[in-house]
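We emphasize that the prediction below concerns an isolated chain of 833 residues; any contacts that depend on oligomerization or on bound cofactors are therefore not represented. The input was used exactly as deposited, without trimming of termini.
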Amino acid sequence: MTTKQRSDRAADNAPGPRPRGVTGPVAGLWRPVWAWLRLDLRRRWLSLLALALLVALATGTVMTAAAGARRGASALDRMLDVTLPVTLMPVPGGPGGPGFDWEAARRLPGVAAVGTFLASGTFSIEGHPGVEIGGVPMDTEINRTVERPVVLAGRLADPARVDEAVVSSRFLEHSGLSVGDTVTAILPTPAETDAMLANNGPASVSFSGPRQRLTIVGVVRSFWWFHDDPAYLGGIQTTYGFTEAYRENLVGTGDQAFVVGLVRLRDGAAGIPAFQAALDRLAKHPVDAFDIVKEAADYRATTTFEAGALAAFALAAYLAAVVLVGQAVVRFVIGATADLGVLRTLGLTTRQATVAAAAGPVLATTAGALAGAVAAAAVSPLFPIGSAADVEPRPGFDVDLAVLAAVVGVTVLLVAVAATTTAFAASVRGIRPARPRGSGFARLAYRAGLPAPVLTGLRFALEPGRAGAAVRPALVGAVVGVLGVLGSLTFQSGVADAAANPARFGQSFEVGSVVGWGGEDFAPADDIRRLVAADRDVLAVNDTLVDVATVERRPVTLFSLDPGTGRPLSVPVLSGRLPATPGEIVLAPGVASRAGARVGDIVTVTGRSLADGRPMRVTGLAFVPQDSHTDYNQGGWVSAAGYRALFPDGFKYHEFHVELRPGASAPAVRDRLNEAAGAGDVFYVLTDELPIDAMNRFLGIAALPRLLGAFLGVLAVGTVGHALFVGVRRRRHEVAVLRALGTTRWQSRAIVLTQAAVIVLVGLAVGVPVGVLLGRALWRAIATSTPLIYVPPLATAALALVVPAVIVTVGVLASVPARRAARLRVPDVLRAE
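Result of the prediction step, given as a token string:
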């Protein structure tokens, strides 16, 4: 018989089933692998199940976050692609306002469509106070050729029907109604409408005109009309047929009705300058037009920020999963390789041992990744989050096959490479009973005379032992868990503070008043300043003059600092100091970045009186008041003398900014000042002029750090638990020897509990300080890039609870392996070894 025949016969007689249709070298490889896998699944099915659950949790979380980020980043653009979005909203005030020729505007060059709506008339919905009445259509173009909404349920209203309406989804949430239900519109009488127009606003919230029942025929959404922001109670929009039927009730008996247009240009933003010039010529005066394209760009910045945060969450989760799950895989493979050592002496080849040791973890990873993909698809209706959810054109179930396939494929590939590499290295090296290296800490404990169970527990926690039991995964898992939870919650503390605190954006004043416009005061400014300064809750008041200058040939809104004889306004300075002389200026970071200026630089500032500009030194960077004409990050401060030098002829706006004492009620101060001034609306609370867009960015991601902390905590619990379970099984021979030498069952339990206590101490000692520092470092990076004023965040509750929570969690995890260690059958274990 030849050598080949003898090897073939030996292969045929090898144990284990032979796969059908498989012959030759492949059959020789798979027969022992398949036999070992069946045995391994029976012996260690619980460990493999735990590994699969860890993988499912990790990959499911990552796939959910990554798919949600992609969906959120594209939500607005997908909405604009299908809604024929508006480009500009001209508001032709003064001459050309009421009675403006919108038909002529439709014929201007570059115009694709113009839809008009009534901005001055209104009505109410019975039983639903606070619902927004969408612009009353003044033609049939709106919802058809311009700003055509996405229909989420039902259909669009028939423009000719009087009794049909569409609503936003938020309206149905608050009202409890559904498509097909009816509501009742209560209209004003023509006289009531005339009174509203004369008073430039609603005279009352109750009307005594006709009542019209409206059937809700559809739920719609678009960027301009109904995108359901968080403070929105929902909206309803009627038809042009409704307008025609009740025209006099809506527009009144005169010609004061105010009609506003929605203009869609063929060239989009590129066509705005030419259209604006043509519109001004048509109206015979400059027409104020709201740039809806810019509003969309600002909204896109918010959704992009939210998507970036969600993508960062996915990346952080995946990196943590690679570290923790990867160590569990390596630990499992090393244990399997050690068990395969006996079969190696019986002729098992290195290749067979490698595949056999890696097969279980790869199979468990594949099953877990597929389960995670199913879970990610199941929770997809919860995404996108934040502002993107309000403009998602197709809410509901969505499967991002690209993300699911990429995460599953990469995860299985990484585990396969790690498992086979580890198995091959261990098979080639072999499991040799080399003398384990003791830890210095354990030796110190021995010299301190600690009890034997405690010393053994220290060794189990810090030394691999003769069986090659891995101790690092448990320690790393504890550190990552504590670090991740504290770091995430520390970061979340900064997010929550920024989402609710306007002072982080430089808005340190709570009450305001506008007393002049266009160079003329319409209220006695000196009397108002004295009145404000005398209030018991006022800390500081700034007499603010506002106008537009150019800084390095770019328009910038400047504010004057003028406290009079009182305390100056608390303006948080990011760097440098506030201006003190006429030749000094403070810029907002956005302006400084655009102009390429830094603290100490000289910039050219041009006001009305200086045709050639005036050199001014940048003494600091600070935010400015957020209002309707500028952003908190786009402006500058000058001294009162510096303002007069730039604008000797007056001002564009004359305002007062009032800073209150800590704890004072802004509405109470406003009401007190208005009563003292003898007017109803001279003073107002600055709630409508906060940096809402910037604050909403953080409001939209407020839950993500908590979710990341919870994910890392759960993943760490699974990793530590898996390490403790496997560690006891790998150390069973050492425990059995100790039991044979007289160690009691309770001492065996104490060994495992001591091991768990060491893991807790290491996790807390490293994880707490590193977690706090990491959370603060990440928040500082976000604060710098947003920008906002950085205040070191501190998760007080998390710091107070982390120690007892970690102790209890690890104690519970250690209880089961401790009981197993106490119940070992010593003769069976020693006989098997």
